[in-house]
Amino acid sequence: MSEIQHGDTVTSKFFKGTGVVVGTSTVISDRKVTEDGEPTTQTLWEVRASEEEFRLRIREQELEKV
Question: Considering the entire predicted model, what is its pTM?
Fold first, then answer.
């Protein structure tokens, strides 16, 4: 289970300062498939960073809870 949750304040090397987790997105790969031939999926965290005017979608391992 993930330690990061909606509303958490996080930081990352991908933006300055801190941001707030505002949601998640599930991305389906059209290149990588499982052994059964199904497409792989990845959950990305949507972060609104105070220094940016847009949301960033970032893998959980790239985020650090503040």
Answer: 0.77
